[in-house]
Amino acid sequence: MLGAVDNKLREWAKPTGGLIQLYERGKYVFVFEDRFLPGYIAEKFGVLDRVRETTGPGGANPTISIGIGRGEDSYEDALELARQALEMALGRGGDQAAVKQGTNFEFFGGKSKAVERRTKVKSRVMAAALSDLLDEAANVIIMGHKQADFDAVGASVGVARLVMARKKPVNIIINRTATPAIGLIEHIEMLPEYEGVFVDPIVGLDRITSGTLLIICDTHNPDYIESKEIFEAAEKVVVIDHHRRMAKSIENTAMTYHEPYASSTSEIVCELAQYIEGGAAMRKREAEALLAGIVLDTNTFFFKTSFRTFEAAGFLRKLGADTIEVKKLFQIDQGSYRCRTELVSATKLIERALAVAVWEGELMPDMGVIAAQAADEMLGLDGVEASFVLYQSDGEVNISARSLGKLNVQIIMESLGGGGHLTNAGAQVSGELSAVQEQLIEVARRHLHEVQK
Hints:
InterPro entries: DDH_dom, DHH_sf, DHHA1_dom, Oligoribo/pAp-PDE_c-di-AMP_PDE. By secondary structure, the chain is α/β, with parallel strands linked by helices. 41% of the residues lie in helices and 20% in strands. The chain folds into three domains: 2-109, Reverse transcriptase/Diguanylate cyclase domain (Alpha-Beta Plaits, 2-Layer Sandwich), CATH 3.30.70; 120-329, Alpha-Beta Complex (inorganic pyrophosphatase (n-terminal core)), CATH 3.90.1640; 334-452, Diaminopimelate Epimerase, Chain A, domain 1 (Roll).
């Protein structure tokens, strides 16, 4: 199979008259004149598809990732940009090409499901690094993304337990008026050790010192974090996230554990907890918070699961996590249920494969959860490959996007300034609801037609 891939790569490179050299098993360097790059871009790096069509032993289909650097004055600088672009392509799940010029990225491909490539060795190494950072910290501040969901809150709670085991002061930053996970927070606050742990950004900013370690969970984009002021004030930052890499990401961290092959950030924290002192002492409610995060991001173990996901769930069950209690955390009131039902009933089908629903009524307190659940339900409609739910809040249009895997909703949401995964993504877009809806449909249609070619 490697020989067949090698032949396709050399055929692809031959028209440029450039140099393509295998320097390590499965790794190539390709140097060619910039004038040939527009042609590769115009064909959207068709070599990705040609390699994927190769069939190996057992019916396996190989994929490649390409990183290209351009616009530099030296080979060394261009190679560094190419290295960064390749790292970005791999961080987004692979099977794609990334072109970097200056600080700007362009992406092509990314149509296939990401293949599991992480190892437990990496988890142990990251656990040791995080353990050292926790030991050195005077206090720890933890926060997730804006409108923190069950995964962001669950992962934050899991990390907080590791901090508490070291008897270090810890706070979790949360905006209670914006989070759809308020029920989960109240569930955790039943534990006496969590009195005063959840604080708003203003209080959290006052607790930043030169010895503070800031841990950001479930996002790596500085535009999405709960508090930019806290981020800018912290001298030492750790990022733990599972979303596919975006062009804009938090840099200069003390540690970044970015694992796009994980189902959720809660799953990553579960693995870390098994190798860090204090992880096994997790309370029942804390284990339920982590399990709720996994349940949310996998849609009850339906999407983006691997054997590691079930291992994490098994670990949490051993710690006492009750699946019935977790299910109760996702319960909604009658008004919210009616809202979800109306959203699904009002679904408009675009070319049969795209389902779009818009909410223009009164916003429910848990609108984020309702939109995500409605998008999940809409995938059950015959012929639908991707679903989108839109609603306006605080001057922005929020979009929840879901896919069965044929269409990559991450690519669609990135076109609107958002991100996520192949089957689960979202965005917050400034503008009028109707205008954003039209923009979304145009982008989704274009992506659908590209896939159907």
